[in-house]
Amino acid sequence: MISRVVKLIYPEKYEPEGSVISVRSFSCNLSHDRARDVYFTMEKFRTEVFPGIAEADLPEKEITESPSLGGIINLHNVGEIRRRPTSVREMEEKIESGKEVLMPDGLPNVKIAKTCRGELVCFDGHHSLLAYMKAGRKKLDQVPHLTIHESSGGGLKDEEIHAFFGEHAAELKGKDWRNYTISWTKAPEEQLEEREQNDMAELLRAYGGGGLSSA
């Protein structure tokens, strides 16, 4: 058996230039067969835990230190993002109107994994995250999101990160996944790409959204 922690964060309020972020949060441990990947953990959370959560009932707390959005590792190069540019513009407009970007059931679009090296990886919601960054958000806890890591407090092993590359996971054995990204809009034989942008700050600059720092 394996046990993973899923943490849910909704920003409540914050000052754009301030250091304190007020959020509503929830976390739980989910155990299942070790052979099941992170996507199984997330689906288990979505179907078995999340339906019983009401955002308004979650405890509110203040956070003074939050990771920079710019330092999060991306799994798509800018070319993949540009093939669906409309979604970024539409979500940015929604955020600027005072609304959040969520899935139809209220689950955050942005999903983050913590690696064994302590890195944060966006494995779902790149377009949403770019929209938030273009709208002026700078810290992770200013964005509705889910994070996942091992219950021991450690991060996911490299082979667990390979699941985010789908059928190409086998091609990454013996290689460092950090050198690659995935492009689902290309033909299968072209989907595994060499990395061009190292983090969300570089992805934002390549997309044409300013110079947010990785730090």
Topology record:
Elements: E1 2-14, E2 21-32, H1 38-49, E3 60-63, H2 78-82, H3 85-96, E4 110-114, E5 120-124, H4 126-134, E6 145-150, H5 158-161, E7 180-182, E8 192-194, H6 200-207
Parallel strand pairs: 4-6
Antiparallel strand pairs: 1-2, 1-6, 2-3, 4-5, 7-8
- Percent range of helical residues: 10-25%
Radius of gyration: 17 Å
User: Strand order across the biggest sheet?
Assistant: 3-2-1-6-4-5
Oligomer: single chain
**Alpha-carbon distance between the two ends:** 36 Å
Counting DSSP H or I runs of 4 or more residues, the number of helices is 6
Strand content: 15-25%
Mean of pLDDT: 91
Q: Please count the beta strands (DSSP E, at least 2 residues each).
A: 8
The low-confidence parts are: none
* Main sheet record: 6 strands, mixed
General form: globular
How many structural domains in the coordinates? 1
SSE arrangement, N to C:
EEHEHHEEHEHEEH
Class by helix and strand content? alpha+beta
Outline the structure in words.
This protein is an alpha+beta fold. The protein has one domain. Helix content is 23%, strand content 24%. It is built from 6 helices and 8 strands, in the order ββαβααββαβαββα. The protein has helices spanning 38-49, 78-82, 85-96, 126-134, 158-161, 200-207; strands spanning 2-14, 21-32, 60-63, 110-114, 120-124, 145-150, 180-182, 192-194. The strands form 2 sheets. The protein has a 6-stranded mixed beta sheet with strand order 3-2-1-6-4-5. Strands 7-8 form a two-stranded antiparallel ribbon. Strand 4 and strand 5 form a beta hairpin. The termini are far apart. The relative contact order is 0.19. The mean pLDDT is 91.
